[in-house]
Amino acid sequence: MNSQFPSGRMVEMRKGRLGEHEKGRPGEESFIPRVQGHDFELEEIISRGAASPEGFWYDQERNEWVLLAKGEAILRFEDEGVMEMKAGDHVLIPAGKRHRVESTSVDAVWVALHFRG
Amino acid sequence: MNSQFPSGRMVEMRKGRLGEHEKGRPGEESFIPRVQGHDFELEEIISRGAASPEGFWYDQERNEWVLLAKGEAILRFEDEGVMEMKAGDHVLIPAGKRHRVESTSVDAVWVALHFRG
Predict the structure, then answer these.
(1) For chain A (length 117 residues), average pLDDT per consecutive 10?
(2) Closest Cβ opposite residue A13 in set B37, B40, B92
(3) DSSP line for B4-62
(4) Three-class SS of residue A96?
(5) Which among A1, A9, A12, A15 is the top mutation candidate for probing chain B, defined by the most B β-carbons within 10 Å of its own β-carbon?
(6) What DSSP designation does B5 have?
(7) What residues of chain B, 5 to 64, have a C-beta less than 8 Å from chain A?
(8) Average pLDDT of the residues of chain B
(9) ipTM of the prediction
């Protein structure tokens, strides 16, 4: 029993760098899990110019806070229209809020935190 | 009862930008809560060149995943020495891992996720 980790799940120190998994074809997205908790997952997304397929909408069961850490992107929300994003912009997307990725720059890298309300 | 939000906590869509709360004196850190879950908190930290006071060590009860989103910084871990960080670098710091901030650039902005193991 270790009082510092009451729930018994220990983590180890780990350093990383956004975009370090750069290998992938243009237009091919990579999803890299970074941290996982009891009620959340944090992942890195390397977009490489990818967009959502035509007619596709994300309709997620969990809330998502997403930061565009590098590059540029355009999101579209079904009921609010287009949102232009530059590096440093972030948005909290409630569960069930339909949205899609209209476009991303080839250097676009995201940090996405998925969590239950 | 809303099946989309089984735990009953709803979030609203909210857009922001790292560093938008730029007001503060040089060397004065700002901590801006961004998202809160059942077992985590995500905050933005604007460092403005701040460093930990001499002899001070962070010794946190929770794990912390921290991303340097902008600028440069140097962390020191009691048992591992110095870690130089550039924008895009991130590190997972286990609870109880003693560390301090040796230095930050005036434009340093972090995203920190605190969570229990």
Answers:
(1) 46 92 84 93 96 96 97 96 97 97 97 94
(2) B92
(3) TSTT------EEEETT----S-TT--EEEEEEE-SSEEEEEEE-TT--PPTT--B--SS
(4) coil
(5) A15
(6) S
(7) 5-19, 34-35, 37-40, 42, 61, 63
(8) 90
(9) 0.89
Cα distance between residue A58 and residue A51, in whole Å? 12
Question: What is the maximum alpha-carbon separation in chain A?
Answer: 52
In whole angstroms, give the CA distance from residue B89 to residue B72. Answer: 9
The pLDDT tens digits of the residues spanning B5-41 come to 444 467 899 999 998 876 788 889 999 999 999 889 9
**Contact between A91 and B35 using a beta-carbon 8 Å cutoff:** no
Instruction: Judge contact between B24 and B48, C-beta under 8 A.
Output: yes
Cβ–Cβ gap A91/B61 under 8 Å: no
Please indicate whether, in this complex, the C-beta atoms of A11 and B117 are within 8 angstroms of each other. Answer: yes
Residues A64, A101: contact at Cβ < 8 Å?
A: no
Q: Burial of A16 by CB count in 10 Å (0-12 exposed, 13-18 middle, 19+ buried)?
A: middle
Distance from CA of A1 to the nearest CA of B (A): 13
Nearest beta carbon to residue B111 from set A4, A77, A111: A111
Residue B52 DSSP symbol: P
Q: Are B45 and B101 in contact (CB under 8 A)?
A: no
